[in-house]
Amino acid sequence: MTSRIYTGILLTVSVGLILLISSPLLLFSFISLIVVYSLYEWLSISDLNEIKKLIYVALFSILLFITINISLTTFQLLLKLSVGLWLLIALLIVFYSSWIRFMLKKYSSLIGITLLYLSWLFLVNLGTNLTGIINGGLSTSFFNNDIQIKHYLLFLIVLVSLSDISGYFFGKSVGKKKLCPSISPNKTVEGFIGSIIIPLAFFSIYFLYYKDYQFMMNDLFFLVLLCTFCTIGDLLVSCHKRVFNKKDSGNILPGHGGVLDRLDSYLPCIIIYQYWMFM
Fold this sequence. Notes:
The chain is mainly alpha-helical. It has helices at 2-21, 24-45, 50-66, 72-95, 97-106, 108-124, 140-144, 146-174, 189-210, 217-243, 259-263, 266-278; strands spanning 178-180, 184-188. 76% of the residues lie in helices and 3% in strands.
């Protein structure tokens, strides 16, 4: 437990410093490296041999490089498809968990590459206004709007972190009814409710009293959706680990496991956040 706390503090400070002092290029590179390493952990869960893992990682890295600048039409289409994909994943997890286990077992590498690529694409293009014309490709929104992009990233990090922490402490303190025992036995309905209520209350108060901004129903809906999909992302990666009888995605972070174990909630939330704010 102590190592988990220390690692959590170190991660928070490190990410905060990167957001504060890094250049757009450094931040872009950091995000890309984290995503590539997360794919390596995903592939390691599925027991691929080292050569295959390195080939997949190399091809994935090339994919990131050649799609830095994609057309606005392609970006819009991928965003809509990505939202639909995560809605489908949520339905399968809740109602047909045996199907999602089958798919993860049979198409593990393809699913990992797809989900991590889409999260990377919409993260490095966070803040892209889909109704506008972007000269020189979508990635210019990341490099030309440095301060605003960091604000968007900070909001997303606080939201996901608050949802995860709230769910953890609510589950530990008052959790009784299991949420998805076949996938993640430790998750409870009470923890899930707490992971929604606390972030919702926090951001409602913050924007109302400190930003003088009254939340609309649309904003409340997407906040609840984001908090819900924090749990969906966590459950998907937990299901993947359970399919291959693994406890963690890695051991690089003492007390936390692997990088993917920290990023699982972000996989769907990045996409939903982009859709909410900029579609």
